[in-house]
Each structure stands twice: as C-alpha cells, then as structure tokens.
Amino acid sequence: MKDNMLGIVIAGHGGFASGLLQAIEQVVGRQERCRAVDFPEGMSTIRLRLALREACSFCDAGNGLVILTDLLGGTPFRLAAELAMEKSRYEVITGTNLQLAAEMMLEREGKTPAEFREMALTCGHRGLTSLWHEQQRQKCDDRTEDGI
Question: pLDDT per residue over 23-66, tens digit each?
C-alpha cells in the first residue's frame, strides 16, 4: 500500500456503493484503501453508522479520508457528515457518479482531503453533460480548428 494515498469510502442506498466500486475497479483497476458500504432496505442507521466507522478505520492510514455518498441529505450522507465533523481530515462528497469516482481514484495519491474535494467537484461538474451539449461543444471546437 502507498503511504500517501487518501482512503476512500463509498456509501449509498441499496447496492449503490458496492456497484460503484465494482464499476470503478472494472474501469481503472483494483483500489487500495477503498471500501464500499451499502445501505440496503431494512438496515438500521445504527448498523450503517458502525459499518461506516469500520470502513473508515480500515481505509484511513493517517493521510485523511474522503467519503463519497450518493444523495445529499440521505442517511449515508448524514452519517458521513457526522464522522467528518469528528475528524478534521475527513471530507464528504455527495452526488457521486462513476465519472467522478473513477477519475478521482487515479488522482488521490499525495492529495490532501481538501485538494481532493476541490478536484472532485470540478471533475463531477465536467462529467455531467448531455449528448446535445457535447455535440455543440464539438461544433465549436471544429470551428475553432478551422480558424473561424
């Protein structure tokens, strides 16, 4: 394991976290210091809190930790926020998608949690688009290349 790599915990409703981690590893390879914590129907918030704490303890090697959650205001987000309030080197990012998570897994080495947070938000915004917007951007890029 790399000593200066941020730990990552992914948390979300249903099988979101484990599904996202599986997809990330398919795209960018196996991830060290990374755990998924699912919140399936019927799981208590007490069990989720314990699972989050255990995953954070496993993933945090002292360089800080980022918790990626699915939904702003949801239970995984709220419990992650509680942990971040206790630990100054923890960050919570919500609205996580595959674009953000996969790209940021490759950028986490040597980053502080705050640096990771800022890069992740930029990455997430860049990745949220539509086919129409990408086609318009491509048209603009084509015109620029022609000197128009």
Answer: 999 999 999 999 999 999 999 999 999 999 999 999 999 989 99
Kindly state the DSSP code that residue 95 receives in the 8-state scheme: S
Active site residue 13: yes
CA distances from 109 to 31, 46, 77 (A): 12, 32, 24
- Bridge partners, residue 7, by sequence: 65
Give the CA radius of gyration of the chain.
Answer: 17
Active-site residue (options: 6, 11, 13, 56): 13
Distance between CA 57 and CA 131 in Å, rounded? 41
Helix (H, G, I), strand (E, B) or coil at 34: strand
Q: What does the block give as tokens for 1?
A: 């394991």
Give CA torsion, residues 20, 22, 27, 32, to 10 deg: 100
Question: CA 113 to CA 88: how far, in whole Å?
Answer: 9
